[in-house]
């Protein structure tokens, strides 16, 4: 499975984690050529990649590379780098955070926290309302 230039590398999405193996499951989409139709089609494949530091979480897009010496029959790759972090979307051109097609202004995300005071609990409430005549 090694390429001519060295060890194979794939980009995929992190699925589930297996803490016993210290590995994560990576879904990689490969393009396969159909000779009859002369077209490429998506072929999903899954790999288990070693992640002993637990630096990736579910949903991250990562770059995985082949291990020189496989850990086991199942875990034959390792997480080389995080390409895109899940939930932390940054525009690669401007470097600003965005949500969909809109930029998120960081000044408005971090409001100072304040507490609401319950003014009704501090006042004494009489059992008879003032508008009721005695």
UniProtKB/TrEMBL annotation:
Keywords: Ribonucleoprotein, Ribosomal protein. InterPro entries: NA-bd_OB-fold, Ribosomal_uS17, Ribosomal_uS17m_metazoa. One of its GO terms (cellular component) is mitochondrial small ribosomal subunit. One of its GO terms (biological process) is mitochondrial translation. It comes from the Eukaryota. SUPFAM superfamilies: Nucleic acid-binding proteins (SSF50249). GO terms for molecular function: structural constituent of ribosome. The keyword Transmembrane does not apply. Pfam families: Ribosomal_S17 (PF00366). The keyword Ribosomal protein applies. Belongs to the universal ribosomal protein uS17 family. This is DgyrCDS3815.
């Amino acid at each position: 499975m090694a390429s001519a230039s060295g060890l194979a590398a794939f980009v995929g999405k992190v699925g589930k984690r297996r803490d016993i193996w210290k590995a994560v499951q990576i879904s990689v989409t490969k393009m396969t050529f159909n000779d009859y139709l002369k077209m490429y089609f998506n072929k999903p494949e899954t790999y288990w990649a070693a992640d002993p530091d637990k630096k990736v979480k579910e949903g991250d897009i990562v770059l995985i590379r082949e291990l020189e010496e496989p850990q086991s029959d199942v875990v034959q790759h390792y997480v080389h780098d995080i390409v895109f972090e899940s939930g932390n979307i940054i525009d690669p051109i401007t470097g600003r955070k965005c949500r969909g097609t809109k930029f998120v202004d960081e000044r408005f995300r971090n409001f100072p926290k304040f507490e609401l005071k319950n003014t009704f609990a501090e006042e004494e409430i009489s059992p008879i309302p003032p508008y009721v005549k005695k």
